[in-house]
Amino acid sequence: MFEKVLEDLQTIEIIDHKFLVVGHTHMECDTVHSQIEKKKKKFVNSIHHPHDWATLIVTTNHKYNAIEMVQDQYFDFGSLLKNKYTFRNTNTLGDKFEWKLIRWMRYEKSKSGILQYKLSLQPDEDFKELDITQRRRKITNFELKKCYSAPLPISCNQKRDLHSVLPFINAEFHNFYNNLHVEGEEQLEDDWDIDEYD
Question: Which of 20, 46, 95, 127 counts the highest number of beta carbons within 10 A?
C-alpha cells in the first residue's frame, strides 16, 4: 500500500512505519476511544443506524471528524502482492527476514521496491533492506481493483436477529435493515415483512 502511495502521489517522498514496543503501547487514539465510550453512555440519541455512530463521534469532541466510507473507497491492496510485489525470506545481504522482529519500516520514492527496516527504534541504527519487487515481471502503473463489486451480504441468522429488534428501532430505518443482502441471495420467505413489526 505504501509503495502504491509513493508511486501515485508526487508530494510524498518518504513513509516511516514504526511499531509500538511491548509494554509501551499507549497511543493517542486509545484516549479518543475512551472518550467516545464515555460519551455513548450519556448520548441522548439512540443508535439506530450506522450514521448515528458518526454523529456520536463528532459530538464527543469538536476536534473529531468522522469520515463515512462507502464501498467504492475500499481497494484490494493484496493484489499488489500477487502481481507487482512479493516478500522474501532473506534480505539483500542474505540475512533471514522475520516480521515479528521489525520495529521500523521505511519506504522511499527514490528506492522503489525496497523495504527498508530496523529491528529497533534507534535513529543511529542502519536500515536493512528487503527487495520486494517481482523479478519475473516488471509492472508499472498497476491499477488497483476495488474490494467489492456488490454490497456485502450477511447471514440469514444475522438478518433474522436484526429483524427481531426492529420494534426497538425507529420506523424510518426499517427499510435499511429490510434491504440488507443475505448470503447466496436467498431472500427468506415473507417472514422479512416489516409490517408485522409495526
Answer: 127
Question: How distant is the alpha carbon of residue 131 from its chain centre?
Answer: 25
Q: Using a CB cutoff of 8 Å and minimum separation of 24, what contacts does 17-20 make?
A: 17/104, 17/105, 17/106, 17/107, 18/103, 18/104, 18/105, 18/121, 19/102, 19/103, 19/104
104-108 and 128-131 beta bridge pairing: unpaired
Cα(187)–Cα(180) distance, integer angstroms: 10
Does residue 52 sit in helix, strand or coil? helix
Neighbours of 178 (CB within 10 A): 15
pTM of the full structure: 0.71
Task: Kindly list the domain boundaries of the chain, sorted by start residue.
Answer: 2-23+73-131, 151-198
Helix (H) or strand (E) holding 29: helix 28-42
